[in-house]
User: Fold this.
Amino acid sequence: MTLIKPITTEKAIRMLELENKITFLVDRRSNKIEIRKEMEKAFNVKVEGVTTQIKNNKKTAIIKLKEESPAIDVATKLGLI
Assistant:
């Protein structure tokens, strides 16, 4: 499993609402293609792009969804909002 858990900081929620991006803590060994495929399969959405970063030996992925797939719907399914 590539996606571990969603990140719910103030900045992540702001990106969710304004930029249609959702942030996840992901497996350190996963790559952008694996993250994209799992996100599309798990939540039935279309991904526009994936950005990853590593801080404190933890990898986070910022996943930008296409306009026809609102990130707010994914957040609602996860219980973030």
